[in-house]
Specification:
This protein has 400 residues and is mainly α. The protein contains 16 helices and no strands. The longest helix has 26 residues. The chain is globular and about 70 Å long. The termini are close together.
Length: 400
Amino acid sequence: MFPLIRKPFFICMAIFLMIEGVLFTYLHLTGQPLMRITPDGQLYFNIAENMVHGNGMINNVRKEDIIVPPLFSLILVPFAALGSEKAFMVFQYILYGANGVFLYVLAQRLFGRPAIGLICAGLYAIHPVLLLNGPQYLLTETLFVTFILAVTYASLRFLKDSQKTKWLFLLVLALSLSLLFRPHLLYVFPLVGIIWLIFWRQKQVAFRSVLVFLVPVSLLGANGWHNYSLHGEFVLLENYSGQNLYIANNPDTKAAFYASTLIDQFVEPDYFTYADVSLSEKSKLLKKRAIHYILSHPIETIERCLLKAGLFFKGIHPIDWATLAASLCGIILSFRKEKQLRPILMYVLLFILGFAALTSAGLLVGGQRYRAPIIPIYLLFASYAIYTLLLPLVPSRKRP
């Protein structure tokens, strides 16, 4: 059906060039610049520059003493040493296309059909949220998509392959590194732990393999002590999540697109009495208040999270809505038709839902930036639905 599949290098290059071509065409037609340095991008690059100059992981561009996960700044260090953000942007543009190729491989690994991989790469190339939040920004999104694809790929190999201990280690390592990049995948560790327990009971992994879970403990502990030596505070990852949790869950919160310029519409008046408190201390105090609100008003919290989840998945373009609808159809069709894959499909579905739930619970939605990293994963289901729809049009003798 697809003879070029016999030449994987050429098909991967074709996918890469197609993705890059669509991206540059989109940027040209919309008049967007090829490089945008946002305040967050300035922060991370400034930290990298300070490391190059031997000043440690500190920033000179934000008034507050903000502590961020270290890995993105570490990745930026070689580019900061060159003295220009442009080198990293070139790398990020290449990575954006490579992510689409990775997704093509991942779709084949999941469903075992090259055509689904091609459809998935095509959807990735034209998805409006990915184009809008692509490599033209010096932000974490493009690299975080790489982490999510790597975690998903390692998860599939762990679930399907016989060398489970090897893939368990690679999966936990990828997850642990992702926490040092952005802490969004913390919820995956309980899923992996439950799967490990099932495999151990089935004698598919040795009990000593549980030691692999010391990897995240060691990495987070090392980062905490590094922050203590540098900032005088033992901070595992960052020192602002409590503030975000409060903004997203205090009684005045509404389910709406959030911007920091509108913060007075999302917080109680006494929030501003913390103006002179350090960011770390403010985060601790506000986290306690947020948890109190959540526990005191569980029904309202659930309702608010559901509303925010709806906002999280709200389409911004007809293509976006179409892929969301196709993904829902793909979930139903794949669970119905791929009976042997149901445990794996359930894992992937929980992966998507967990990401949406954590984002909805922990912060307010600001644009669609926070949905972008998980989009490639639910495109797997959209591609399956489209493949199933198109399959009857293919002559039976040419079907896989």
